[in-house]
Amino acid sequence: xxxxFLDYLRYERNVSPLTVQTYETALREFESYFxxxxxxxxxxxxxxxxxxDWMESxxxxxxxxxxxxxxxxxxxxxxxxxxxxxxxxxxxxxxxxNPKKAKPLPQYVREKDMDRLLDNLEWNDTLxxxxxxxxxxxxxxxxxxxxxxxxxxxxxxxYGARQLKxxxxxxxxxxxxxxxxxxxxxxxxxxxxxxQPKYSEALFxxxxxxxxxxxxxxxLVKKYLSLVTxxxxxxxxxxxxxxxxxxLNNGAGLESVQKLLGHESLNTTxxxxxxxxxxLKRVYKEAHPRA
Length: 291
Fold this sequence. Notes:
This protein is mostly helical. The chain is about 55% helix and about 5% strand. It has 13 helices and 3 strands; from the N terminus they run H-H-H-H-H-H-H-E-E-E-H-H-H-H-H-H. It has helices spanning about 1-10, 15-35, 50-60, 65-85, 110-120, 125-140, 145-150, 180-195, 215-225, 235-250, 255-260, 265-270, 275-285; strands at about 155-160, 165, 175. Strands 1-2-3 form a 3-stranded antiparallel sheet, with no helix packed on it. Strand 2 and strand 3 (about 175) form a beta hairpin. Helix 2 crosses helix 4. The mean pLDDT is about 90.
């Protein structure tokens, strides 16, 4: 039955040799599994429970969900073929749900590394250094997206209330507070910036007096994060993750962080809660009399 299916793929469907090989590997492995499980089983008698057991055995071996989904896809294609050719009387694979792919956890820079970058690095009073530190500080202190930071204009900064008017996705606006340190950095940056020719209303300008591009902001962030972290990703979004992580680790509520980040759904924000576990362990160790 497997050979007939593979010939169908090769000669009727014209699929690539690599796909044929991938499907064959999955089918042979499943056949070997159910025959070892019960020698009386065959392709005509396996049911959904056998398929689920096989998937569970793959998970136990550490096979990732994406690979299992590919194997399951091969099994579904095989049974559809076999059913259409009346080689089997039922398709036990069609109702099987795919295992959920694990969401990658957000990468973030540790608080002590951000402190090292912002406090211990030798920053000069040049426009380039002041602008770079102010951008890094704004990302880390407000959690803005790169496009949101680039889109800020001078008019969006309210020093009296220490808050930013941020335009996020789908032009939705939100108010984000900031602290005294960022206020001082912004004021120093604006004084130096205004000594140069200015051709834009943007808050952050490049050396030509125009709004900074996404490439310029990304390059700046990557350059400085490379000094304090070995993370593979060293982007503005990593600083956004670092903001959320620091907030939660220091006692902020999840809904508050959601509003600051501009997430529509709390589910999006919940991915950061994994980082609070170290804080919980410290609290437990300090609070429990026998810890």
